[in-house]
Design brief:
The chain is of the alpha+beta class. The chain is built from four helices and twelve strands. Strands 3, 4, 7, 11 and 12 form a five-stranded antiparallel beta sheet that branches.
Length: 248
């Protein structure tokens, strides 16, 4: 009996020690996490979007840097996909006919970064500071499927894009807008999504109208299996997943 009681006592002590070690490990891991976040805030910027709006084709953002480290080369990341309606899904249009340039007959949509600038014309935001920034939306095309590394580039504003695509019978564009920036080591930080929406050129003659209505991709989903090919940069861009795939 005494040996059984002793064994039970040892088991209880072992359980208590195990629970104590688990609690201690949890507290230590939380402390390390806080220390890591504190150190990161002193090295890496953390820019939050406080307000976003569109006026006359220009994006206006109110930004705040929550960290101690400055953010450089603030930019508007513009990704767009011309598309048409299918029976069940959106269908990508991966190339268009380019007019007005004898050296560029076919054009392919490309992602572009447009500098955000404050009233002083600067594209930076120092630690713990707030400011407002503007960037006029442009849509980049390349004469090569591989982008500007091997082809020439041309950019349209919203009115030019609307005219160019509607002349070719293209009514819709899926538009993805995000904020990007770099740290002091010129490392590109994770993008901060601003808004993803569909432009309907029959309804939206200005960017402001498309922005305000904000037609979501879930109205008509784009099927990955229907795409003839996809740019690798598009494929690895996290913002696309869950929005351009078929919804269940």
């Amino acid at each position: 009996m005494e040996s059984e009681a002793f064994g039970i006592s040892l088991a209880i002590v072992a359980a208590i020690i195990s629970i104590y070690n688990a609690i201690l490990f949890y507290r230590q891991s939380k402390l390390v996490e806080k220390q890591t976040l504190l150190q990161r805030s002193q090295v890496y910027p953390y820019v939050r979007i406080r307000e976003a709006n569109v006026e006359k084709g220009t994006f206006k953002l109110a930004l705040e840097n929550m960290a101690e480290a400055p953010a450089f080369e603030l930019g508007l990341l513009v990704s767009f996909v011309p598309c048409s309606l299918g029976e069940k899904h959106w269908r990508f249009i991966d190339e268009i006919t380019w007019t007005g340039d004898d050296e560029m007959k076919t054009a392919y949509p490309r992602r572009a970064v447009i500098p955000f600038k404050n009233q002083k014309g600067l594209s930076r935001l120092y630690g713990k500071e707030k400011d407002t920034y503007n960037a006029k939306l442009l849509f980049l095309f390349s004469s090569s499927k591989k982008g500007l590394w091997e082809g020439k580039g041309k950019a349209d504003d919203f009115a030019e894009l609307r005219r160019r695509l509607t002349d070719q019978g293209i009514r819709f564009v899926a538009l993805m807008i995000a904020l990007v920036y770099k740290d002091v080591a010129e490392t590109v930080e994770e993008f901060e999504p601003i808004k993803d929406f569909v432009v309907d050129f029959q309804k939206h003659d200005t960017l402001e109208k498309a922005w305000k209505e904000g037609i979501p991709f879930s109205d008509k989903s784009i099927g990955y299996e229907e795409i003839p090919f996809i740019d690798y940069d598009f494929y690895r861009f996290k913002s696309y997943r869950g929005r351009l795939e078929p919804f269940r």
